[in-house]
């Protein structure tokens, strides 16, 4: 499904974002620009009027073919804080469940003068497919596609790390849990590598952390103590049982015994290590309540940072569309 070069598809002729589909192919300059712009939006949450006019008059459509209350809500808040008109399309009751194709639905939404689609889909490459087939002046933001990518989640994680650690150089990061089925882990690997961390460790059982991930520049660890030894950042991932086929785990209790993050296992990391989780959390499966709610946890910071990062990406993509020669040509033909 993903035929186009990701960089060529995502950037306009001036090297600016016009879609945000994957972190693959995006350089450190663009990722840093996203983080810097997100920083500028963080203080808005403390203001009495939480709005800026950057997307005033624009229509943003949330196209969620998979359920995700947290991600959809933060995208909706981000759009509204940018002064956009936001529409949440209920896919379960939409025409796509009545036999209308995805392309038919997109064309109808385009005909309603939509300016941006936020897409979440169970199929890897769905956001790329939509970007390739939409009219040139509609921005596409990937809110998670299959096992492939979740770029805004990775970027809000990067913002959280930068705000707590100052920079990425010299950091050791452990990502623990169901790596095999995680689009978050893949996007985190790309962003952490691009931003220059010292070491990335993928930790979990062999069935959930296959050896081929080492080709992406990560160190594979099947022992939790070795994986957490002296790390600065711990990212816990949930077990994605809905994506598992076959007996990849003996039991949840066995997984927690071997790979669950508890106060004891947290002590193997550096004393000032931070603990992250993209959510939803399964307490007593991958992380204890004491750690999830403890002083090392920055999980709620991630939620707050998610709104700012999504505001940054949406505003940058819309600006890139407006400055694209393709968009200008398309508008000129109308």
TrEMBL record:
Pathway(s) where this gene product acts: Pyrimidine metabolism; UMP biosynthesis via de novo pathway; (S)-dihydroorotate from bicarbonate: step 2/3
Which residues does the record give as L-aspartate binding sites? 98, 183, 238
Top-level taxon of the source organism: Bacteria
Residue span, Aspartate/ornithine carbamoyltransferase Asp/Orn-binding domain: 169-316
Q: Name one GO molecular function term.
A: aspartate carbamoyltransferase activity
EC nos: 2.1.3.2
Similarity-based family: Belongs to the aspartate/ornithine carbamoyltransferase superfamily. ATCase family.
What quaternary structure, including any partners, is listed in this protein's UniProt entry? Answer: Heterododecamer (2C3:3R2) of six catalytic PyrB chains organized as two trimers (C3), and six regulatory PyrI chains organized as three dimers (R2).
Q: Which PANTHER family match?
A: ASPARTATE CARBAMOYLTRANSFERASE, ORNITHINE CARBAMOYLTRANSFERASE, MITOCHONDRIAL
Entries under HAMAP family matching the protein = Asp_carb_tr (MF_00001)
Quote the protein name from its UniProt record: Aspartate carbamoyltransferase
Organism listed in the record: Marinomonas colpomeniae
């Amino acid at each position: 499904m993903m035929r186009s070069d990701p960089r060529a598809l995502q950037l306009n002729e001036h090297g600016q974002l016009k879609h945000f589909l994957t972190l693959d192919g995006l350089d450190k300059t663009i990722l840093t620009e996203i983080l810097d712009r997100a920083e500028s939006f963080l203080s808005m949450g403390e203001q009495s009027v939480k709005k800026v006019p950057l997307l005033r008059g624009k229509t943003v459509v949330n196209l969620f073919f998979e359920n995700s209350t947290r991600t959809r809500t933060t995208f909706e808040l981000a759009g509204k804080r940018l002064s956009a008109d936001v529409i949440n399309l209920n896919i379960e009751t939409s025409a796509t469940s009545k036999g209308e194709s995805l392309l038919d639905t997109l064309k109808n939404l385009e005909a309603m003068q939509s300016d941006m689609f936020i897409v979440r889909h169970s199929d890897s490459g769905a956001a790329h497919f939509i970007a390739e087939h939409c009219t040139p002046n509609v921005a596409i933001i990937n809110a998670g596609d299959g096992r492939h990518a979740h770029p805004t989640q990775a970027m809000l994680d990067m913002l959280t790390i930068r705000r707590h650690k100052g920079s990425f150089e010299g950091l050791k990061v452990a990502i623990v849990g169901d790596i095999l089925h995680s689009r978050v882990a893949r996007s985190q690997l790309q962003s952490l590598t691009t931003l220059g961390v010292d070491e990335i460790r993928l930790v979990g059982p062999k069935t959930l952390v296959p050896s081929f991930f080492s080709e992406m520049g990560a160190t594979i660890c099947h022992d939790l103590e070795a994986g957490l030894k002296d790390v600065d950042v711990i990212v816990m991932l949930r077990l994605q049982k809905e994506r598992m086929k076959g007996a990849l785990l003996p039991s949840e209790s066995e997984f927690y015994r071997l790979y669950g993050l508890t106060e004891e296992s947290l002590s193997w990391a550096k004393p000032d290590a931070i603990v992250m989780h993209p959510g939803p959390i399964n307490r007593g499966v991958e992380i204890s309540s004491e750690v999830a709610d403890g002083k090392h946890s920055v999980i709620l910071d991630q939620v707050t940072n998610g709104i700012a990062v999504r505001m940054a990406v949406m505003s940058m993509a819309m600006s890139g569309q407006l400055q694209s020669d393709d968009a200008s040509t398309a508008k000129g033909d109308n």
